[in-house]
Design brief:
Number of helices: 18
Distance between the termini: 30 Å
Strand order of the largest sheet: 3-2-1-4-5-6-7
Number of strands: 13
CATH topology of the largest domain: Rossmann fold
Number of domains: 2
CATH class of the largest domain: Alpha Beta
Shape: globular
CATH architecture of the largest domain: 3-Layer(aba) Sandwich
Length: 420
Amino acid sequence: MGFLSWQHPVLPASLHQIDFNILHANRFRTFTNMNIGFDGKRIFQNKTGLGNYGRTLVTILAQLFPQNRYILFAPKQTGLFMTGVISDAEVHVPKSLFYKAFPVLWRRHGMIKDIAIAGLNIYHGLSNELPRGIEIAKIKTVVTVHDLIFERFPETYHFDERFVHRWKVKRACKIADAIIAISKQTKDDLVNLYGINAEKIFICYQSCNPVFEKKTTEVEKELVRKKYQLPDKYFLFVSSITSRKNLFTICKAMILLKDELAVPLVVIGDGKKEKEKVKQLMKLNGIEERLILLNELPSSKESSFTSGSDFPAIYQQALALVYPSIFEGFGLPVLEALWSGLPVICSNTSSLPEVAGDAALYFSPYDCKLLAKHMADIATNTILVETLSRRGFEQAGKFATGKYADSIVEVYKGVMVGDG
């Protein structure tokens, strides 16, 4: 899930980023002044995962490589992403009355004409797909594939959804000059499930909003604590509330601990049926007050929550992030927690060990007993907390914004010289 929206903070001048940017400034000199186009639909319309990915990527590239021209192609432009602060950023939306009335058709047909006349060197599809007919534009293409969850957990998708997702991913991987996978897990799935040539796939670990790297002040923490009525101690869960995200297992662990550890769980995220099932489970066991759903508070309607600007202070006051997801393409909240100095307790599946490394306590997604033990250990063992926090900062450094931008530009470079 990560940030609900993203408003272009200036990248922090931490030492590792300064060193990295100086080291690589000259390396890509001959690959600047490129015209790079992006699929902007979700950048302007999606408040969570895929939208965050696009907003983060475009902002980081624009700040670290301002010599390039960045063009977003979107059915409509919204306030979710403010392009004015990015040098040379452009937005192309439907121009004719017909395509304004039928933006879906513009994405299917009219957008290709706009792409072709924009003078692009590269078009980057940010969310598992490339536009139909992109071959006509005769430009280099890159596509990011986030995950193949619809193949691994087909029961969570309608048949028509699975068919459309499968068709889009396979087609994009076939015609793209290069494929970006956000984790080794995703690359392995593309190779093993779809038979994609591994040499065409490049792993580019994403970064998160740099504001998580900044330590919040005690005054900021106190303001946020009062605004959301946060308890003195709490565990944190950040994600949409769906069966795959597995909030149910945390609740079962809390039930096991209800007489031993009365620490509540603060939840950032919303849901429908699964949320009601979780609330009912906690109520039946007499601990419903230990489940704090921030999205149900009036303060969740404020811009500081919907933009995510209060999230770092919420993270940094928690005992640990608990992330029991059954399967992830990446797991952005884990990285946000690592930057926040927050211990992580997460499931040992899919890409999560790639992200958390040795900075987390792991458990099988349905092992509520081991999860309960980990939660109790975090609540009582200060040495363990300090160790995980220190390791977390070290692990987070592997996903620094400079390294992220470098990996993306490496792919662009390979495509431009014919190696992609």
